[in-house]
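task queued by scheduler; priority normal; single chain, no ligands, no partner chains; default sampling; output format set to structure tokens
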Amino acid sequence: MKVTVRYFASLRDALGSSESLEVADGMTLGALRDRLIARSEAHARVLARGRAVRCALNQAMSDESAAVTEGAEVAFFPPVTGG
């Protein structure tokens, strides 16, 4: 199934604004993140497991156990603070 992955803030600076991927049915956000980490050195650097990265599924904040669905929009971004 096809999904769109969008990147924001410093992640967008490193990886570009978005990419489309074919993923397996039932893939979770965590499994997608791991697949992206394996994709390239740049992906590994900004999405590394030790880094604080937030994710959203179809514009709703989600944890990594959420299942990705056909045509989903997945977003990754660093945590932000207000002030």
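post-processing summary
- The beta strands are 2-7, 18-22, 54-57, 60-62, 73-77.
- The longest strand covers residues 2-7.
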